[in-house]
Design a protein that fits this description.
alpha+beta; 4-stranded antiparallel beta sheet
Length: about 525
């Protein structure tokens, strides 16, 4: 056993050395340079196109290269970005944004209101197949255009001239300004996309942005480099000269690289190392507005029976998972919307109710399974749980495998590359799949509209007309109390239909050097490192 452990350790060190030092860019040299920030960001991104991306790790790259009408500052506030100012009509339906005259693309061309109009209509265009198109449904006729029921010219976004953008909404939206700093709302260049097509966001030479950094190098499955953008309108406030994002999902290798001084930080660490890292004060923990859950393919037998879905959910001991695997102070998920959003008078989670037990209820789960025709699991097909490669995801899947086996069910586990998991979930080619959602803004709607029948991010094959109706009502009313009531009713339907299996509410645990200053970790899961300073 000892030999095997030592051999494994040597192999991991070898892999780390290959991963972080094999290129002509040395991680240790990067970490020691005055204003070069090196961070292990996570998986190789599937998309870096703002209209197509749905993953937080890729968004952490996109927000360095692009900027919306507004931006998020180091205090987490929404402040002017490409727009130096704006006005809002008394009825809350019309926003007029004024683009700064010194706003430039990284190739020196001016950023215009036309770029925003093009980008938003491109994201809504059904030909683009943006999974996040529904985030633009707040714009008048946005949904109709996306569904082929209106023309692009009918959409309520129009450049009145090069520096003036007028936006008309379907209904007053209290968080609309927050949405304008979300990646799907970022501008992109029509001439670049028309010239290079889908490949425009895969090559640093054509990845033209308007944000504080420029991509200079992308060695796939290894690292991405960025340099400060001298043409960025607020370049004087950017201290870092270079950012290097390493691409790795190997938590053990990532921690070894960090502790060897090869990088300034790493996005995730092995769960079994968490107690030591907390004790040594190396781990930084941040609140996140997000939920870790399993998708269930609701049209595939036997998951088309609600009793089966309910039995599987009730058989999970969520407290065991957060205390023995998570270890970061996560809370067991008792609904889908996490804590941290104000409801009518208190936290939405408490007001909406607690639909799931924090401990397993095996007796009820077995009873439901028997009622569905599978007493003690007899006749139940083998379940496959798919998840993206990660030690943490693996441990959770193994724990749930054991819990479901207590029902007499056979469960097999399949790990795969992040891109493959995304593709299989999107195609609904699965039985049970790991999933997770971080809010795009601080409102329950950012979780609830995920499961409407028109959402491309709904991977469950579940839909409910009443649920859709309540979500639409919540989006169209300006009465805050009524909005919250509609959303509470919608969540109740989602949870009582057992369309998904929430497991826990996220927190973020990562390692980061104390000499990295002046950054912001958003509860929405974004790392705003562009403002950082290295102070050694």
């Amino acid at each position: 056993m000892k030999k095997r452990i030592i051999a494994t350790f040597i192999l991991v060190v070898f892999l780390v050395t290959g991963l972080f030092l094999s290129s002509n860019y040395r991680g240790a040299e990067a970490a020691s340079s005055k204003q070069v920030f090196t961070y292990i960001n996570g998986a190789e991104p599937r998309y870096l196109d703002p209209a197509l991306n749905t993953a937080a790790d890729a968004a952490n790259i996109i927000i360095n290269v692009f900027e919306g009408l507004t931006r998020v500052n180091v205090k987490g506030e929404t402040v002017p970005g490409m727009a130096e100012k704006w006005t809002v009509s008394k009825d809350g339906l019309t926003y007029t944004f004024y683009i700064r005259k010194n706003a430039k693309w990284s190739d020196g061309k001016p950023v215009t209101a036309y770029d925003f109009e093009y980008a938003w209509k491109r994201a809504l265009d059904p030909k683009t197949a943006s999974e996040y198109a529904y985030q633009l449904y707040y714009i008048k006729n946005g949904q109709k255009f996306n569904e082929g029921k209106a023309k692009a010219s009918d959409v309520g976004v129009k450049a009145l001239n090069a520096t003036t953008l007028q936006v008309t909404l379907e209904a007053p939206t209290p968080y609309f300004l927050e949405l304008t700093n979300f990646p799907t709302y970022f501008p992109v260049r029509k001439d670049i996309i028309e010239k290079y097509g889908d490949k425009w966001a895969t090559d640093p030479k054509t990845y033209i942005g308007n944000g504080p950094f420029i991509m200079t190098k992308w060695v796939h499955n290894s690292y991405i480099e960025f340099k400060k953008n001298p043409k960025y309108w607020d370049a004087k406030s950017i201290t870092l000269e270079k950012i290097v994002y390493k691409l790795s999902e190997d938590d053990k290798a990532n921690l070894l690289a960090y502790e060897a001084g090869q990088v300034d930080g790493a996005e995730s660490v092995p769960t079994d190392e968490i107690p030591r890292l907390i004790k040594e004060k190396k781990l930084k923990i941040w609140p996140l507005l997000g939920t870790y859950y399993y998708d269930v393919n609701c049209k595939v037998k036997p998951f088309n029976d609600k009793r089966v879905r309910q039995a599987l959910s009730l058989a999970i001991d969520r407290t065991y998972i957060v205390e023995n695997i998570g270890k970061l102070g996560q809370k067991p998920a008792t609904g889908f919307v996490p804590y941290g959003i104000k409801g009518i008078s208190k936290d939405f989670r408490d007001e909406s109710g607690h639909f799931l037990p924090v401990k397993a209820d095996l007796a009820k789960a077995k009873k439901l399974l028997a009622e569905a025709g599978y007493p003690n699991g007899k006749g139940f097909p083998e379940i496959e749980i798919i998840y993206n490669t990660s030690e943490g995801h693996k441990k959770i899947a193994e724990a749930i495998q054991n819990m479901w086996q207590q029902l007499g069910i056979k469960v097999k586990l399949s790990n795969m590359d992040w891109k493959v998991l995304l593709e299989r979930r999107h195609k609904k080619d699965y039985m049970v799949a790991r999933d997770g959602w971080l809010g795009d803004y601080v409102d329950p709607m950012t979780f609830l509209d995920l499961f409407t029948s028109y959402s491309d991010n709904n991977n469950t094959n579940w839909s409910n007309p009443k649920y859709d109706e309540l979500v639409i009502k919540a989006k169209k009313t300006s009465d805050r109390k009524q909005r919250m009531q509609y959303m509470m009713q919608a969540e109740k339907i989602l949870m009582q239909d057992y369309a998904i299996i929430p497991i826990y509410f996220y927190v973020k645990g990562h390692v980061l050097r104390d000499y990295v200053k002046n950054y912001y970790i958003s509860p929405l899961g974004f790392n705003y490192f562009m403002y950082a300073k290295i102070e050694k």
